[in-house]
């Protein structure tokens, strides 16, 4: 799967995960990303933690329309990171992509 912004590829190699994200998994490469989907838009349910993830990540939260609602750089062992607005999709990646809050992504 790929992630696009206005027909431009943002991430080439994307995996879709149900459940846990990158805990205990190998480090992502720069062109890789992981998408997690929760069952409904929420700030609390879309929050993440960095326990047992041993490298920094960029977290991108999207609403049901795939509009970016928050972006944060997070570091190992941060206990709780929540988006500023409710989200249903969570994208985890290594490299901060050229996107902004308000952009719409497609995958």
Secondary structure layout:
Elements: E1 3-5, E2 8-11, E3 13-17, E4 32-42, E5 57-62, E6 68-74, E7 87-93
Parallel strand pairs: 3-4
Antiparallel strand pairs: 1-2, 4-7, 5-6, 5-7
Order of helices and strands: EEEEEEE
Number of domains: 1
Largest sheet: 5 strands, mixed
What would the principal axes of the Cα set say about the shape?
globular
Strand content: 35-45%
Measured as a percent range, the helix fraction is under 10%
Q: Overall pLDDT, averaged?
A: 89
Number of strands: 7
Number of helices, where a helix is a run of at least 4 consecutive DSSP H or I residues: 0
Characterize this entry briefly.
The chain has 107 residues and is mainly β. The chain has no helices and 7 strands. It has strands spanning 3-5, 8-11, 13-17, 32-42, 57-62, 68-74, 87-93.
Task: Report what the structure shows.
The chain is mainly β and 107 residues long. It has one domain. Helix content is 0%, strand content 40%. The chain contains no helices and 7 strands. The chain has strands spanning 3-5, 8-11, 13-17, 32-42, 57-62, 68-74, 87-93. The strands form 2 sheets. The chain has a 5-stranded mixed beta sheet, with no helix packed on it. Strands 1-2 form a two-stranded antiparallel sheet. Strand 1 (3-5) and strand 2 (8-11) form a beta hairpin. The protein is globular and about 35 Å long. The termini are close together. The mean pLDDT is 89.
């Amino acid at each position: 799967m790929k992630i696009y912004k206005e027909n431009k590829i943002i991430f080439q190699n994307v995996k879709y995960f149900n459940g846990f994200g990158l805990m205990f998994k190998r480090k992502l490469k720069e062109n890789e990303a992981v998408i997690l989907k929760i069952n409904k838009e929420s700030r609390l349910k879309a929050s993440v933690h960095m326990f047992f993830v041993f490298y920094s990540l960029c977290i991108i939260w999207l609403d049901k329309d795939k509009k970016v609602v928050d972006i944060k750089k997070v570091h190992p062992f941060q206990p709780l990171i929540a988006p500023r607005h409710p989200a249903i999709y969570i994208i985890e990646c290594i490299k901060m992509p050229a996107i902004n809050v308000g952009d719409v992504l497609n995958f």
